[in-house]
Write a structure and sequence with these properties.
3 strands, mainly alpha, 4 helices
Amino acid sequence: MTDAGENRPVPEAPTMRPISKIFRARQVHREMIYDGLARCGSLGHWWSQREAAHERATTVKEAAVAAAPAIRLCTGCPETGVDGRCALRAQLDSYTGLAAGLAWVRGRPKQVSMDPPRSTRSSQPLAS
């Protein structure tokens, strides 16, 4: 790259320090709240109840039924999907719970209906 008037190289901008995951997760969260696009934005208590029911499920079918209301809410939400900000925040926060239409375990997405019953894996959450 050269300077427009003088045909000499323009120094490149210094490399930015990596933004910490925590800072970026908070930034994404603030953006989502500010935009007001997330369909679950004002449903924190309700959402927590859905996640608790999903976590308590002892079979794949119970897990899918428990998660269904939350997953339905995610349908059509502009923040949903693996490329949406909801998924980005779940990844950055190493989130375990329901987000972006999926179950998450330590920041990794899983289908809510593909998990074995809890009784076969007592030391891990159902959605792992």
